[in-house]
Amino acid sequence: MRVLVTGASGGIASGVVPALINAGHQVVGLVRSDEGEAKVKAYGAEVRRGNLDDLDSLRAGAEDADGVVHLAFNHADFATAGATERAAIEAFGQVLARTGKPFLFASGVALYKPGQVLTEDDASPFTGPESPRGGAEQLALSYAERGIRAVSLRFPPTVHYTGDHGFIAFLAQKAKEQGVSAYVGDGAHRWAAVHLGDAAKAVALALEKSAPGAAVHVVAEPGVATREIAEAIGRLLGVPTESVTPEQAQARLGFIGRVFATDIQASSVLTRQRLGWEPTGPTLLDDIAGGAYPA
């Protein structure tokens, strides 16, 4: 299958693109820079230049492909990111309608059901262009009724691997700067997680097997206690661990404070059954202990 992958030079794509190639697919990576082009070519993929604001490049890429894996997101400008994402989803929908082609797109499990275990059968509560991520999941999954094999890839807040620059790397950097690794409250609330290698295998399987309108939970660990995450970072960096109040969290941890104070758990039981996926990679705590986040 000839597959267009957006965000092809990003962190998650660094696992997904090679996994798709190893599964026998021909990958075309959408990139916006010379650096990104060199990285994607090194994976063995073709390159198409473009970005999320260039809707013509998205449409042209989809027309030239047998399927789309949409991993890109505008993290640089959250004020407009939802509108950008919704416009991209609409552009892909225009081209893929009535083709039966797969359209996999990155979503997440965060903030859907705080304090409860999210399952694949739980619908996103976010609808409409003014909602988080522009209500993109609800919009895209509705395309199943338009003859598109639309599939939501719900990633956990942490996709971990050596070189990850996400939330855990940010927490490690804060711990190094402040000389203490902080968690919020009693630290009993949990974060779902998955290793990049396992995530990439799940995406490859979802491309081949997932039914239209399905949500795929790319989750290996349903929930890791945030206190354990902070303690693992503390041991790695040789600094003590400390509880902060929810009111202190933003000042101490920056933008991530509110999210780190939230219980984000998700099950992947149905995904494992439907795809035959079984995660085998290291756990989040294993990766932290192994030096994946040296700050």
TrEMBL record:
Residues 3-213 form the NAD-dependent epimerase/dehydratase domain. It comes from the Bacteria. Pfam families: Epimerase. Coiled coil: none annotated. InterPro entries: Epimerase_deHydtase (IPR001509), NAD(P)-bd_dom_sf (IPR036291), NAD(P)-dependent_oxidoreduct (IPR051783). This is SDR family oxidoreductase. The lineage of its organism: Bacteria, Bacillati, Actinomycetota, Actinomycetes, Cryptosporangiales.
